[in-house]
Amino acid sequence: MARSLPPDPSLGTALRQLREARDLSQEGVSVNASISLGTYGKIERNEVAPAWATVRAIARALGISMEELGATVDKLG
Q1: Domain of 41: which CATH number?
Q2: Of 20, 41, 42, 56, which residue is least crowded by CB atoms under 10 Å?
Q3: What are the pLDDT digits (tens) for 21-62?
Q4: How many domains, the chain?
Q5: What does the pLDDT look like over 1-12, one tens digit per residue?
Q6: Is 65 among the domain residues?
Q7: Looking at the domain assignment, is residue 69 inside a domain?
């Protein structure tokens, strides 16, 4: 069985920065992304590597494009 890649620390940091810049709570983002608050918190803390569909849902919940998210991750990485 293939091993999963470890979480990218830049992703969690980028999500937190983008969320805080929009004055959103973790709970608000998780509800709008249809994921649990616990899962969203783990993603921001870099405890889990989210699936692609989850990342897309979070970007929509933040009101940003995947390009904007990617650019933010690249700046941090």
Answers
A1: 1.10.260
A2: 20
A3: 999 999 999 999 999 999 999 999 999 999 999 999 999 999
A4: 1
A5: 667 788 899 999
A6: yes
A7: yes
